[in-house]
Amino acid sequence: VTSSLLHTWQHKVSFIRDMDKDVLVRVVRQLRPMLFAPKEAILSERTLFSVRRGICLRGGKVFASGDVWGVDMVLCNVHLRDTTTARCLCYMETICLRYADLMHAIEPFHKERARIRWAEVKLAVCRAMQKIGIALRALHKLSGKSLHDLSETQRVYLYQSAINEKFEGLVPPDNDVCQTRNGVAPTRRTVRLPTARAATFNRSDGQRFSSHGTERSDSQDLNEVLNFVKQQSADIHDLKASLAEMRGAMASTKA
After folding, report:
1. Contacts of 120 (CB under 8 A, 6+ apart)
2. What is the pLDDT, as a whole number, of residue 88?
3. Which has the minimum average pLDDT: 84-93, 180-189, 201-210?
4. 208 to each of 94, 99, 118, 203, how far by Cα in Å?
5. Confidence at residue 199, expressed as pLDDT on a 0 to 100 scale
6. Residue 62's beta-bridge partner residues?
7. What is the per-residue pLDDT across 121-176, written as a single tens digit (0 to 9) for each?
8. Helix, strand or coil for residue 61?
9. From residue 40, how far is each of 31, 43, 88, 192 by CA, in Å?
10. Which residue of 58, 74, 173, 248 sits 20 to 30 Å from the alpha carbon of 64, by its own alpha carbon?
11. Quick one: 172 exposed, middle or buried, by C-beta within 10 A (0-12, 13-18, 19+)?
12. Are 229 and 128 in contact (CB under 8 A)?
C-alpha cells in the first residue's frame, strides 16, 4: 500500500524520498484523498499535494498525474512560502499531506526531524537569496548603490525588509535605520517582491520542535535568517559560498 501511494511522486520530495520504511508507513497513514471539480480553486495552508488523476494550473504551470506542489510547507514564515492558488481544469483527484500530520508521524524519529531541518535550510537559503537579489537590483536601479556601498547596519535592514516583503527600494542612513526598522522607510516607489520566492531559515540541529511538538514562532525563524546572513557573509558571493558548503555537508552526511 505504501509503495502504491508513493511510487509516482516520492522521488520528487527530498525529505520523503530518503525516509526509512518504518517512517514512511507512518507518513502514509496521514495521507488524505481529496477530490475537486472543474474550475475549483485549491488553496490549503502548509499542505503537500500530489496529483493522482486530472490536470490543474498553478502559477502558469500545468500539473498532471505524479506532479506535486507545496513542498515548502515545512517553512514557518508565511512570507517565505508560495501561496499561489491552483485551479482545476477538470475533475481531479489528489492526495495531500498536512504539515501538522507529517510532524506527528515523525515525532519519535530524531533522524527524520533532522532530515527535514536540512531540507528547510537548503530551501530557506535559496529563496532568501532570490528575494535579497531582487531587493539589491531594485536598490541599484533606484539609487545606483550596491551591497558593498552599504554599512553592516544597512545590510541587515535590507535583508530583514526584503525577507518580510517590506523593502521599498531605498535604504535609510545608519542613524535612521533603527527608527525605520519597524516602520516604513522613505522611498519614491514601492517594489513588490513575489511571494513565491520566499523561505525561512532554521538551524540543522533537529531542535525546532519541543517534546510536545510546539512550533517555533515566525519571529524566531526570521531572527535566524538575519543572524545567518549577517554572520556568514559580507556580500552576496559569500552567501553563495555558504550554500555550496551546506550542500557539501549534506552530501557527506548521506554518504
Report:
1. 74, 75, 200, 201, 202, 208
2. 95
3. 201-210
4. 29, 14, 11, 8
5. 36
6. 57
7. 889 888 888 888 888 888 888 888 888 888 888 888 888 888 888 887 777 776 65
8. strand
9. 21, 10, 5, 28
10. 74
11. middle
12. yes
Reported residue count of the chain is: 255
Listed in order, strand segments (DSSP E) in the chain are 32-36, 41-42, 47-53, 56-58, 61-63, 68-69, 86-88, 92-98
Predicted pLDDT at 198: 36
- Sheet hosting strand 32-36, strand order edge to edge: 32-36, 92-98, 47-53, 68-69
Q: Is the model more confident about 211 or about 13?
A: 13
Q: Which three cell numbers stand for residue 53?
A: 488523476
Using a cut of 0.70, tell me whether the model's pTM lies above it: no
Packed helices 99-106 and 110-143: angle between N→C axes, nearest 10 degrees? 140
The closest alpha carbon to 11, from 96, 68, 64, belongs to: 68
> 101 pLDDT band (50/70/90 cuts)?
very high
pLDDT at 80: 85
pLDDT of residue 252: 66
Cα 109 from Cα 249, distance rounded (Å): 21
Query: What is the Cα–Cα distance from 182 to 113, expressed in whole angstroms?
Result: 33
pLDDT of 187 strictly over 70:
no
Strand order in the sheet with 56-58: 41-42, 86-88, 56-58, 61-63
Residue with cell 524519529: 109
